[in-house]
Design goal:
This protein is of the alpha+beta class and about 250 residues long. It is built from ten helices and nine strands. Helix content is about 45%, strand content about 20%. A five-stranded antiparallel sheet has the order 3-4-5-6-7.
């Protein structure tokens, strides 16, 4: 397993620079490798890594806003990232799983509606490769089915009926509970409570961008005042850097 990258200020700047031109899916994949250079095995594992990095930058409480789907009123609330991380298992052990050594994946089995499925959990690459079609969720699920049988006959994954797809989706949610994150949000106006989806990759990016911009502003100010290089400024401790910024009149 590759060693976990060190995540200091230089690494944060490099991460911001490399992720800046990427679209959301590719950016989330890049950010998920910031604390662990290995590829996430499941979508839930990637979500956990993004939450860990978000907590490091934003702290344990994250202020969020969501619009009530019933009356449209904006609701503000604080998400407890530490509690959410503690609720997510590192990995899910299941009795219906076996290791496929050749493919280096965990294979699960499902019996539903006279069908027997052998499947793996979706990876971030599966999500990125999901086609734009009438039913991308069904396409994603079918992509992860390794074998499908009905009444002893092997059939293609594209033949799975909706009830079997629903059962497969529910089983995947059980095995990888971090793949879809949401918060229960009460509306301050109408009193309704709804489930608001949470994307840690989208939430993380503004915090990383703000941290990078602050570092760049400090580098620029001290370079203009003292002629220092980027390495000179980043080598300073935060306390000494802030002191020099005050002397330079920028703090």
């Amino acid at each position: 397993m590759p060693a976990a990258p060190r995540l200091g200020e230089r690494e944060l700047l490099a991460l911001w620079e490399s992720a800046l031109p990427l679209h959301d899916t590719a950016r989330a994949a890049a950010l998920a490798r910031a604390l662990d250079a290995s590829a996430p095995r499941t979508v839930g594992e990637q979500q956990r890594r993004l939450l860990q990095l978000l907590q490091r930058l934003a702290g344990p409480q994250l202020p969020l806003r969501a619009a009530c789907p019933h009356c449209g009123e904006a609701a503000s609330f604080d998400a407890d990232l530490l509690q959410l991380l503690q609720a997510l298992p590192e990995a899910t052990a299941a009795a219906d799983a076996d290791a496929d050594a050749d493919a280096a994946v965990t294979v699960h089995e499902l019996h539903a509606h006279d069908w027997t499925l052998r499947f793996r959990l979706p990876t971030p690459d599966d999500v990125a490769a999901s086609p734009t079609c009438d039913d991308p969720v069904a396409a994603l699920l079918a992509r992860c089915v390794l074998q499908a049988e009905q009444g002893g006959r092997c059939l293609g994954a594209d033949r799975l009926p909706p009830p079997v797809l629903d059962a497969l989706s529910a089983r995947m949610d059980e095995l990888d509970p971090g793949a879809q994150l949401a918060f229960a949000v009460p509306c301050p106006a109408c009193g309704a409570t709804w489930s608001s989806a949470f994307d840690p990759g989208r939430a993380l990016w503004p915090w990383l961008q703000t941290a990078a911009e602050r570092m760049l502003l400090a580098i620029d100010a001290l370079a203009c005042r003292y002629g220092w290089t980027e390495d000179d400024v980043l080598a300073l401790s935060p306390t000494r850097r802030n002191a020099y910024l005050q002397l330079a009149g920028t703090e």
